[in-house]
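To make the argument concrete, we let one protein speak, a sequence paired with a row of structure tokens, as a model reads it:
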Amino acid sequence: MYNWQSIKNVYDNYATKEIISNSLERGITAWTDPYFYNWNFTPIEEKMWGYLRTFGPPMYPQYPVAHCFIDFANPLVKVGIEADGKDWHDRDKDRARDKKLASIGWTIYRLKGSTIFVAGRDYDEDIEEYQFDPILETLQTIREKHFEGL
């Protein structure tokens, strides 16, 4: 489990400034090095992190907002992804949390852990592309709705 204040301090004192300055210098779709903290991902988060690092858009792990962590978020466009493992999520609490985040301008996309683990298994080496991948579709939607034109 992450320590709220520890991660918040890291983002407040280093990461958010770097994200903003890097975005102003290189554009909002540029990555700022996310390895400023020793992330201890769950298996679901680790697979999702691989997707984000490979296919984008730029997101940052365990981003602290309104006294909760968003699994992966971009504070500049206020968008986040929650990788929902069945053992860690309660639908009613998640809805209330998403509503709270929406009230301060955030959009949250939720992906089931089972979807994350199954995604990418239909890879066909002959045509070298994914046949069907809901994760890539979600990332494309996020790029189009939140990053396009920036």
